[in-house]
Amino acid sequence: MHMMTGATGNAGAIVVREFARQHVPIRVLARNPAASPWLRELPGIEVVTGDMRVPESLGAALDGVDKVLMISSPRDDMVGTQCRFIDAAQAAGVGHIVKLSGKESGTTFDPQAFRGTRWHLAIERYLEESGLAWTHLRPSQFMQFYLPGSLTGVDARRGALVMPIGDSRLSPVDIEDIARVAVAMMGADGTAGRAYDMTGPDALSMAEVAELITAASGRPYRYEPVTAERKRALHAAEGLGPDVLDLLDEIYAGRRNSPDSRVDLSAHRAFGVEPTTFAQFARRHAADFAAVVSAA
Ligand SMILES: NC(=O)c1ccc[n+]([C@@H]2O[C@H](COP(=O)([O-])OP(=O)(O)OC[C@H]3O[C@@H](n4cnc5c(N)ncnc54)[C@H](OP(=O)(O)O)[C@@H]3O)[C@@H](O)[C@H]2O)c1
C-alpha cells in the first residue's frame, strides 16, 4: 500500500489528481478531509485522517503502508513536521519515503542562504540517516506561482509582473510534470538512494515570462522590476506576516544574486514525461491570465 501526504496543497492536489487520472490507487493523509470534499470524489483514492506531527493520530493511516510520498507546507514548522513523520513512518514499518523537496535553478544560488532550501536539506539529511530507503524529488520554482492571485507577483489588473530580481533567469517547472514524475516514481523500482533535480525546459527572464503571458492571454503584460524594499511593502500590504516576508526577502535576494539558471530535465527523461514549456502552461491558463483583468 502506498500513501501520500499534502494532497490538499498546491502541489499535492495536482499530484493526487494524477494518481486518480492514471487509476493508480493511493491512500491520502489529510488533517481535515471535510475541508476538501473533492478528495473523496477521486476514484481509487482512500482518504484517512491524521496529523503528520501527531504520531498517535497516524496508527490507522500508516497500517500496511510500505512507501510514502511526503509533502508538507514550506513553513517554519516543515523540519519538525517531516522529521516527526519520518519517525512515525519508520516505527510503523514503512520501508521507503519519497520526499518532495526543492532546489533553486539559479546556478550560483546558495541553498544555505534561503531558509526554504536549508530546511529541505536538513530533512533530506535526517531521512538519509534514518535507515529508511529514500528518494528526493527536487523541483525548481513552480510555474503555477505565476498565476494571478499567487505570491509571485502577477498583477492582472495592471498587466504587470512585479518582481525584485532584476534580469535574473529562472527555470520554473509545471506541477503537472512533477505529478507525472511523482506517480511514476512511486511505482518504480531502483529509485532508492537517488536525488532527482527537476526544472522546466526554459531558463526565462521575468521580461520573457511577461511576453509569454501576453502572447497566451492576448492582453499586454510587462515586467516591472522593483527594489527588495518595495516588494516587501507590497507583500506586507497583501497581509503577509513578518516570517513570510523574511522568507521571501531571502529567496528574492538569492535569485537577484544568481543571474543564470540551469535547465535539468533528467527526471522528466528518467520517467518518460514530456516537459511542459512556459508557453504551453500560459496557453493552458490563458483564461486565468485574462479573466481577472476583465473582471477588474
Ligand atoms: N512553491 C514552489 O515554487 C516550490 C518549488 C519547489 C518545491 N516546493 C516545495 O513543495 C512543497 C509543497 O508546497 P505547497 O506549495 O504544495 O505547500 P502547501 O500548499 O502549503 O501544501 C502543504 C500540504 O501539506 C499538508 N500539511 C501541512 N502540515 C501537515 C500536517 N502536520 N499533517 C498533515 N498534513 C499537513 C497541508 O494540509 P492542510 O490542508 O491540512 O494544511 C497541505 O495539504 C513544500 O515543501 C515546498 O517547499 C515548492
From TrEMBL:
Gene3D superfamilies linked: NAD(P)-binding Rossmann-like Domain (3.40.50.720), UDP-galactose 4-epimerase, domain 1 (3.90.25.10)
InterPro entries, sorted: Ergot_Alk_Oxidoreductase, NAD(P)-bd_dom, NAD(P)-bd_dom_sf
SUPFAM superfamilies noted in UniProt: NAD(P)-binding Rossmann-fold domains
Name of one Pfam family that matches: NAD_binding_10
Coiled-coil zones: none
Domain (NAD(P)-binding) ranges: 6-144
Protein known as: NAD(P)-dependent oxidoreductase
Organism of derivation: Actinocatenispora rupis
